[in-house]
Amino acid sequence: MPRAEIVVPFFGENSKKAKLVQWHVKDGTAVRIGESLATLETRKVVTDLECYQEGILHHIIREGELVEVGSSIGYLTTDEVEGEDERCQVTLELTTAEIEALDSVRESTSREEFLRKCLQEKLAKSDHLRG
């Protein structure tokens, strides 16, 4: 199961450690993006750490402990399969005419926008041929 570390952020040059004041979510609980996970305190700052992805929270550090900046206080496990990604990779074979068209519109259209349009046209043609 993939694991995403929850680390103590950088607070400034003079803050090398922070105290974990309180966990706002119990160990083993499902959390959502934006949810407050814990409160950290340095000599100058008190801040809440927000969740940056959904998953199950696992504590590593107990309340009241001092932790160094950049060290892990906990982690999230997710249901994603290791290596799984929401994006997909597509190989798009362009004709010479399409490549020339890409070169001609380079200044007026982004490359991504042009390639997206080519892909949509090719998918529409393939659906039409199958249909």
From TrEMBL:
Cofactors named for this entry: (R)-lipoate
InterPro entries registered for this protein in UniProt: 2-oxoA_DH_lipoyl-BS (IPR003016), Biotin_lipoyl (IPR000089), Single_hybrid_motif (IPR011053)
Domain of life assignment: Bacteria
Occurrences of domain Lipoyl-binding (ranges): 3-77
Record Pfam families: Biotin_lipoyl
Sorted UniProt keywords: Lipoyl
Keyword Cell membrane listed: no
Coiled coil (residue ranges): none
Record-given protein name: Lipoyl-binding domain-containing protein
